[in-house]
Design brief:
It contains 6 helices and 7 strands; from the N terminus they run ααβββαβαβαββα. The chain is of the alpha+beta class. Keywords: Glycoprotein, Secreted, Signal.
Length: about 190
């Protein structure tokens, strides 16, 4: 019976909404795949707000590593931010953050009956810093973000929006039973999803 369950779980990993997902032994590819197939993530900062100072604070942000579809994106999570946003105010004090993305936001997990907390509903946790991008990289960030989030182009200009990226220092992958897998940024950027 356990063998049948593992066989079914492995078969479920073969088809995702955007195509075949990488096998569990390819953690770096899985991290790239999940990020590229997600349009948003939970960004956690250390709060700088009165009454919450020093406490963890998570917020949802739209993101993109490139236009949807094949070939896979750059692997760089780009964001469109304003200093008016509470989490961005936290980042101005301490740019360290973590970013979690999950296949739970795609049709994949529902299609296979996976609860978002089930390891087979892969999620990736990135740690690093948020940095504003320079003008040349802003062109890439704009294309990546506006291709997935066209509404962004019409957001109020007086909010002083800017393009930023999540500069990845650590990566953890949870995509199968047996615990987290550690992927280095070098491994992550050297593969295609």
């Amino acid at each position: 019976m356990a063998g049948l369950l593992l066989l079914c779980a492995a078969a479920g990993l073969l088809l995702a909404a955007g195509g075949a997902i990488p096998p569990p032994e390819e953690a770096a590819r899985m991290a790239r795949f999940v990020l590229h197939n997600c349009d948003w993530g939970a960004l956690a900062t250390l709060s700088a707000q009165e009454g919450l100072r020093g406490h963890p604070f998570a917020n949802i942000f739209s993101l993109s590593d490139g236009p949807p579809g094949l070939p896979g994106g750059s692997g760089v999570p780009y964001l469109y931010l304003t200093d008016m946003e509470i989490s961005v105010q936290d980042l101005e004090i301490n740019s360290n953050a973590s970013l979690t993305v999950s296949l739970a936001q795609t049709p994949y997990c529902k299609k296979h009956g996976y609860d978002p907390q089930n390891p087979l509903c892969a999620h990736i946790i990135f740690c690093g810093t948020i940095v504003k991008v320079n003008d040349s990289e802003a062109v890439l960030a704009k294309k990546a973000l506006f291709s997935r989030h066209p509404e962004m182009e019409s957001w109020p200009k007086d909010h002083n929006w800017f393009f930023a990226k999540f500069d990845i220092t650590n990566i953890w992958v949870l995509d199968y039973f047996g615990g987290l897998k550690i992927v280095t940024p070098e491994e992550y950027y050297s593969v295609k999803p």
